[in-house]
Design a protein that fits this description.
Helix content is 42%, strand content 15%. By secondary structure, the protein is of the alpha/beta class. Helix 4 packs across helix 5 and helix 4 packs parallel to helix 11. It starts with 13 loop residues before the first strand and ends with a helix. The structure holds nicotinamide-adenine-dinucleotide.
């Protein structure tokens, strides 16, 4: 098991392995950068195939958070945590409190929040042991709560920007969108899309969640292994990462990929593959920044929900700028976003 030679290690500042025999907690907190502020990023609870897979994921996700926070203009660096759902994993209040103690031991260098497999209720348990946690229940008039609806709103604005750029259409009315994963983010995204008059196709490993989208949004259910390859206007990946690869890209029929999942590209080279295939790709950490904008407003305080929505809506024009720069330079959108993010972090680092 390696960290320093792991392909997703990117000079991370600190990686904390958290183990507690009494509760069965096994977790990793990765801090990629604190140049712009405390390393902020959600905690993912997942049944990883191996410890290596979890390390790879947390390193990659935390770097993505540095870039995401920089691009969203936040006073946050990048970090992420994973909790391993081992075969004998038993979620308990004591386990999440123990995780909170590990977060607290970093004395504010890392701020946690929800990611896949987590909930507001779990964040409240973590908050019993640390103040470095966001995504807590919303207080009236303040930003806060489950970040997923804000994430979904930002993705919706990003899809509008991508459709305007690629298809020269100012409305989503009558367009078709295939949504992979209708969990927290995918569900709210479907709601925005349905309200805008889009026709939906959905897939999820959880059949109840598929049924909810069918019932509420008249979505058409699609087989898990076919959702990415639908003949639709937009594919919106909202499940897990590494779904855009040398194997999958040649089979994609949509001309736009714009969704909320983190780390959609299996490798950076897949951005070039998408460009060569004529597919417009909305860089994941730019389009899905709505949740962390909400988290930042909650953590630093002082902004109401309306102001947060205004800042999340700016994701649309931000993406349009990336699309334009990519088109005029002939470079893939992921490279444009990476260089913009590195420039922001680099300038702050030397300031
Ligand atoms: P979630 O766990 O609520 O939803 C994910 C859904 O994907 C689940 O319903 C799951 O059953 C489904 N899924 C898993 N594998 C699948 C597969 N192979 N095919 C189809 N469906 C599959 O998580 P979420 O909070 O909605 O996050 C979704 C994605 O968005 C993740 O990649 C997450 O990192 C990213 N993201 C989330 C937020 C947020 O605010 N929650 C913010 C930014 C990015």
């Amino acid at each position: 098991m390696s960290v320093f030679s792991n392909s997703s290690f990117d000079d991370h500042e600190r990686v904390l392995f958290c183990s507690d025999a009494a509760t069965g907690l096994r977790a990793i907190i990765a801090i990629h950068s604190t140049v712009l502020g405390p390393a902020a990023g959600g905690c993912r609870q997942w049944a990883y195939a191996s410890e290596e897979a979890g390390i790879y994921d947390v390193l990659r996700l935390s770097r993505g958070m540095s870039y995401k926070n920089a691009m969203a203009g936040l006073r946050f660096g990048g970090g992420k945590a994973v909790i391993f759902k081992t075969p004998d994993f038993k979620p308990s209040e004591a386990l999440y409190e123990r995780f909170g103690e590990f977060v607290d031991s970093l004395q504010g260098e890392y701020v946690t929040a929800e990611d896949v497999g987590m909930s507001v209720a779990v964040m409240e348990m973590i908050a019993r042991r640390t103040k470095y946690v966001s995504g807590l229940p919303q207080r009236a008039g303040h930003a806060g709560g489950d970040p997923s609806p804000k994430t979904a709103f930002g993705i919706f604005k990003g899809i509008e920007a991508a459709v305007a750029f690629k298809l020269q259409k100012s409305s989503l009315q009558g367009l078709s969108v295939a949504v992979q994963g209708v969990g927290n983010v995918g569900y709210y995204l479907c709601r925005y899309l349905a309200e805008a008059g889009a026709n939906l196709r959905v897939a999820d490993i959880d059949e109840d969640r598929v049924q909810r989208a069918v019932d509420e949004f008249a979505a058409v259910p699609v087989a898990l292994d076919e959702i990415l390859y639908q003949d639709v206007d937009v594919v919106a990946p909202c499940a897990l990462g590494a779904i855009l690869s040398e194997q999958t890209i040649p089979k994609i029929r949509s001309s736009i990929i714009a969704g909320g999942a983190n780390n959609q590209l299996e490798t950076d080279a897949d951005g070039r593959r998408l460009l060569d295939a004529g597919i417009l790709y909305a860089p994941d950490y730019v389009i899905n920044g709505g949740g962390i904008i909400n988290v930042a407003s909650e953590f630093y305080g002082g902004e109401d929900d309306e102001e947060v929505m205004r800042r999340v809506a700016a994701i649309g024009p931000r993406l349009s700028g990336i699309f334009q720069e990519a088109a005029s330079s002939g470079r893939p959108t992921n490279e444009i976003a990476d260089s913009q993010a590195r420039r922001i972090i680099g300038e702050a680092g030397t300031a």
